[in-house]
Automatic annotation (TrEMBL):
Origin: domain of life: Eukaryota
Transmembrane portions of the chain: 6-35, 262-281
Keywords from the named record: Membrane, Transmembrane, Transmembrane helix
Naturally occurring in which organism (per UniProt): Plasmodium vivax North Korean
Protein name in UniProt: Variable surface protein
Length: 295
């Protein structure tokens, strides 16, 4: 009976070992298909090809809407904007400017988004960036994020803006700060040309900043910030096609490639561990079997 049990156990271990070898070969084939061409996944590239210049076009589109709404001859009056001093009471705004115009401009901007069936949440995220250029004189004494939230809340209360309320409920201070940095980088990067080496140092700094930012998006993170960072990646790569900057990367790291690498590496590592343990157990049991036969 013991001999039979050992025999069955060895068969099971052999099956496990063969299964391990099969899965290792399978994962190796998948890995080679997905991560050829300098680890740049062609499936990902094809899937996201439509995103090229999306970040740039959205930035310009919402900036155009904001500039129209911010023109002095276009500013309208709204009842909920009548007392801006009271609205911003308790908020550090000594370093801000033109706050008497902030509420009507932001109100008109959001109304414009709603009337033109634009993505209100998306437009409001870009709005935070435009407010920096319009209303800040001294950053240290102008809490623009608190003012931004207050203005959105005032609009929502006056107009029952459900989409705006949804945005307010999910505002993350850290993400908004990162979005501001990303938009600053975007604006400065695309205002330059890279056909000679005069701006190459800035392009290098831009790529290094991106590589730091994208780390927050590893692990299948789904956030507006990460999605916009992916869009920026494709804009950057499109811009750098004509660049003449030795030592500056033309291709930036893709969060999806890292995610898929983890997706492949972790199962393969697990299978290797199982195979190793199976091999050791097989050897141990074979030795026991031999000793048993001898005795």
């Amino acid at each position: 009976m013991l001999i039979f049990s050992i025999f069955i156990y060895n068969i099971i271990l052999e099956i496990l070992t063969c299964g391990c070898i099969f899965f290792i070969i399978l994962f190796e084939v998948i890995f080679k298909i997905l991560f050829r061409h300098n680890n740049k996944c062609f499936l990902i590239k094809k899937t996201y090809l439509y995103l090229i210049k999306k970040f740039q076009s959205l930035y310009e589109k919402y900036d155009h809407i904001f500039e129209i709404c911010a023109k002095d001859d276009n500013i309208e009056t709204y009842s909920h904007c009548s007392d801006y001093e009271q609205m911003f009471k308790g908020i550090d705004h000594n370093g801000c400017s033109n706050l008497n115009k902030a509420c009507p401009i932001i109100t008109k901007y959001i109304k414009q988004l709603e009337e033109s069936s634009e993505n209100v949440t998306e437009g409001c995220i870009y709005l935070y960036y435009y407010m920096h250029g319009k209303f800040i004189v001294n950053k240290s004494s102008c809490n623009i994020l608190a003012i931004y939230k207050k203005l959105l809340q005032a609009y929502c209360d006056a107009n029952a803006g459900k989409k705006c309320n949804d945005l307010l409920a999910h505002i993350n201070n850290y993400d908004f700060v990162k979005m501001k940095k990303l938009m600053d980088q975007h604006s400065s990067f695309f205002d330059r040309t890279y056909k000679d080496d005069s701006n190459c140092e800035y392009a290098k700094e831009c790529a290094e900043s991106y590589e730091q930012y994208i780390k927050d998006c590893y692990g299948f993170v789904n956030s507006y910030y990460c999605n916009e960072l992916k869009n920026f990646k494709y804009d950057y790569e499109d811009k750098m096609k004509e660049a003449k900057c030795p030592g500056v990367p033309n291709i930036l790291t893709s969060a999806e490639v890292i995610d898929l690498q983890y997706f492949v590496v972790i199962p393969v590592s697990t299978i290797l561990v199982i195979c190793f343990i199976s091999f050791i157990l097989c050897k141990v049991n074979n030795n026991k079997y031999i000793l048993y036969i001898k005795h």
